[in-house]
Amino acid sequence: MKIHVIGAGIGGMSCAAVLAKNGFEVVVLEQNDYFGGKANRISEEGFEFDTGPSLLTYPDWFDELFIYCDKNPRDYYKFQRLNLITRYFVNNKVVDVMSDIEKTADNFENKFGLNKKVFLRYINKWIKIYNISEKIFLLKELKFNLLFFKNAIKWLFSTGFSNILQSMSSYNRRLENKYVEPIMNRFATYTGSSPYKTPAFMNQLAIVEMINGGYYPEDGIHSIPKAIYKLCLEMGVQFVFNTKIDEIKYERQSFNISSGAKNYKSTVVISNIDYYHTQFLFNRKVNTSYSKLSTSAFVFYWGVRINSDKLKLHNILFSKNYENEFSQIFEEGVLPDDPTIYINITSKINSQHAPKDCENWFVMVNTPANLEIDNRDNIEKIKKVIIKKIEEKIGVDLSKLIIYENILTPKSLSVSTGSYLGSLYGDNQNSLNAIVNRKKNTDSTYNNFYYVGGTVHPGGGMPLALRSGINVAKKIINEA
Ligand SMILES: Cc1cc2nc3c(=O)[nH]c(=O)nc-3n(C[C@H](O)[C@H](O)[C@H](O)COP(=O)(O)OP(=O)(O)OC[C@H]3O[C@@H](n4cnc5c(N)ncnc54)[C@H](O)[C@@H]3O)c2cc1C
Fold first, then answer.
1. Which sequence spans correspond to the domains of the chain?
2. Quick one: pLDDT band at residue 446, thresholds 50, 70, 90?
3. 10 lines ligand 1 (CB under 6 A)
């Protein structure tokens, strides 16, 4: 059976590899002349930048794909577990979050006076809840059968009803520590959501990084899509690049996928494009906006002539008023005036990612998924805000040190990856309703039309996009 996958992102390619391994003829149609989607690579003027994802979690899930295809993952990519995951600049203090929770708890106690036992008790609660959630919601395609409801009831009792009703930030107020609260609240942004709205049980997101660990692939994140692409080719997947799909129609028991004058026919189609963008291809109406979508971002890829000893691989410079930042993003739909700044510098680990005496700074701020904010004035404004804050917190004036610049904006992300209004992960998870109603992997009208990637179940981020691809491929194999 011939299957078409639209989009060569992580979800699409992982799905294609599993299907091809099982004897299906798989063709991937990709608009760009490269694979990887959001996880692309810029190589210019001696600088290397991963364009989107920078933190690898769940590396064992990626290994699982290669092992399933009878390959040794270590022949394709290698990674290291980070000892220090993220350096946080909160108010006037600095703290390191480590892969070892005991050390993180020590740092919180020594720097911020948070009793170690209180923090470990807090973490242990979320570890328990996370372990149940992983089995029910993440590892498989959602099937609303008896087993699901039995597990869901178990999950409800262990989570506690109050953690469904109150928000993440209101739960975290029990830590009674103005420095640790924003650090724990920040995990809501891993789903592009607000900690002031997402339910408290989403605190379990912290477990993924703080307990399971943060990882760095040798030569950066791009090694991951590169490895999956190689695997796909070895499994016999065909790629057709420079093929932008502009319409999908269902006619006479099969899908007609059009790219300009060229048509592809298929009885089974998998869309790895953003869920909402796919609805446009079907000529369906979409009714959503920044208040329901996950965040978008401005990312500055800066080649900097510097050797910044105060910064590590991952760094966060918090805004003064975190709550106001999210209210500007989700309620007003405007660019926050004092955004939290994320700085990723891979040349700290891979010296070949920047020329001598230079570093490759990936500097990101969250924005609403609203293309109206994407204009020259806002870019200049936000750049000044970032440079000022870096000077205040780290003591360096970047303005004269930037020797290379490239910028990702909500519009450019939308054009290069098809993400609707530039949202990073499709719908946000700002309410229980949004979480429960996350877009499914199967189309509501056509049984043989599937969705994979970071905008559908089980969620955003590379590991979950991969998981969706594997789950959908296995479903198709089981039903064939
Ligand atoms: C700035 C940023 C930072 C991030 N940070 C992290 C992080 O630290 N860790 C993490 O795990 N995740 C992170 N993510 C999220 C992660 O990148 C994504 O969730 C994941 O890569 C999405 O994969 P996907 O399978 O949904 O495909 P996508 O990457 O969305 O790719 C979709 C593909 O479909 C193609 N396409 C779109 N429209 C068409 C069309 N009409 N015709 C043909 N092809 C089309 C696109 O060109 C693209 O190749 C980040 C994302 C961004 C943008």
1. 2-38+220-288+428-479, 83-210, 291-417
2. very high
3. yes
Whether the CB of 7 sits within 6 Å of ligand 1: yes
In the predicted model, what is the mean pLDDT of residues 72-101? 97
- pLDDT at residue number 141: 58
CATH superfamily to which 2-38+220-288+428-479 belongs? FAD/NAD(P)-binding domain (3.50.50.60)
pLDDT per residue as tens digits for the range 297-338: 999 999 999 999 999 999 999 999 999 999 999 999 999 999
Ligand 1: does its nearest atom lie under 6 Å from the Cβ of 273? yes
Least confident of 159-173, 278-292, 362-376, 402-416: 159-173
| CA of 162 relative to ligand 1 center, distance in Å | 34
Among 35, 264, 417, say which to mutate for ligand 1: greatest number of ligand atoms within 8 Å of CB.
417
Mean pLDDT of 26-30: 98
SS (H, E, C) the chain: CEEEEECCCHHHHHHHHHHHHCCCEEEEECCCCCCCCCCCEEEECCEEEECCCCCECCHHHHHHHHHHCCCCHHHCCCEEECCEEEEEEECCEEEEEECCHHHHHHHHHHHHCCCHHHHHHHHHHHHHHHHHHHHHHHCCCCCCCHHHHHHHHHHHHHHCCHHHHCEHHHHHHHHCCCCHHHHHHHHHHHHCCCCCCCEHHHHHHHHHHHCCCCEEECCCCCHHHHHHHHHHHHHCCEEECCCCCCEEEEECCEEEEEECCEEEEECEEEECCCHHHHHHHCCCCCCCCCCCECCEEEEEEEEECCCCCCCCCEEEECCCCHHHHHHHHHHHCCCCCCCCEEEEEHHHCCHHHCCCCCEEEEEEEEECCCHHHCCHHHHHHHHHHHHHHHHHHHCCCHHHCEEEEEEECHHHHHHHHCCHHHCCCCECCCCHHHHHCCCCCECCCCCCEEECCCCCCCCCCHHHHHHHHHHHHHHHHHHC
pTM, entire model: 0.95
CATH architecture of 291-417: 2-Layer Sandwich (3.30)
Q: Ligand 1 centroid vs 40 CA: distance in angstroms?
A: 9
